[in-house]
Amino acid sequence: MAFVSGSGVALRVGEARAVSGACVTRVHAAGGMTVRSSRARVGAGSALRMAVAEPATAADEGMLLEDWLRLDVDPALDKCVRSIFSACKEIAYKIRTASCDKMQCFNDFGDEQLAIDLLADKAMFENLTASGVVATASSEETPVEKEITPGGKYSVAFDPLDGSSIIDTNFSVGTIFGVWPGSKLTGITGRGLVAAGLAVYGPRTTITLSVEGKPYAYEFLLIDDFSGRHGNWILTKTFSTVTEGKLFAPGNLRAVNDNKGYAALVQFYKDNKYQLRYTGGMVPDVNQILIKGKGVFCNPESPTAKAKLRVLYEVAPIGYIMEKAGAKSSDGKQSVLDIPINNTEVKSQICVGSAGEVQRFEEMVGVDNYSPSY
Predict the structure, then answer these.
(1) Whose CB among 165, 255, 276, 321 lies 3.0–4.6 Å from 259's, allowing a Cys bridge?
(2) Alpha-carbon distance 166 to 281, whole Å?
């Protein structure tokens, strides 16, 4: 048995000690897997913090994705999720080996040179088809419902390469996906999601996953060290709380020119000395809120700077993950999970983050300049 402190320091049996201001989580060694079983507050006046598992390097740490899914997840959903993780592994490699010019990034595919976003799209469709459990899939690259496997149990919508416009600068980019039961990806809402994830292709390749049957959001790391675990996905973090904190990522800043509420909100952030942390990619900007455990990401619209984020491919999956992680989401008046997805082109403004920051967004920005497309 081992313990993991809130600061991420592993304490083995006999070494457990009170750590002031830290949360300690018991971890049981079970066939080389870690199982997060309980949480305790340690030390006088300690703040409740999320316990983070260290990267798996010992027999009592690091649960494999397939073992983790097998515990509580429907077998067909297990196959669906693992097929997406396989696609993201391919995409990560293609990004690392791509060559870029000022306009686009390419990768050799046999005798053909294809744009990296098209290769990502291809990898997703091929792996979803191979799973044998996906009835319908739809990509933001070609936003139509495509039949994959007749009689399949689930349908998947995805943005294969979010942030493709900044990939040439070597910024982090990502993949976003959502899984719904049945064969339809219209006439639904985010409330029907049974799984969603965001992959981050940066210095490390990670996927944060939320899935039906599991209470929180969970980060998996792609092991890329040429050890015996090379190519495996290992559970590394559990996200259950997003607290208040002065960190903001303001998307669509052009909207401040004719959205007075958004202009006032950005000025509030500046006046109150918030930290600006914005890359221009939704995936890394949302992911940092999970990692830091605080902050807010917002992307409102205005009469001249309309919302560009599609609910099916980006907004609903992100909202599902964030709400599972203990954060809030809003389109200015309601959770983004309640937005009707009547067609694949529905777009929305969005704010995700701590409860207080999302409430501030609703009060200061709201829906005065928002024209829903549903």
Answers:
(1) 255
(2) 8
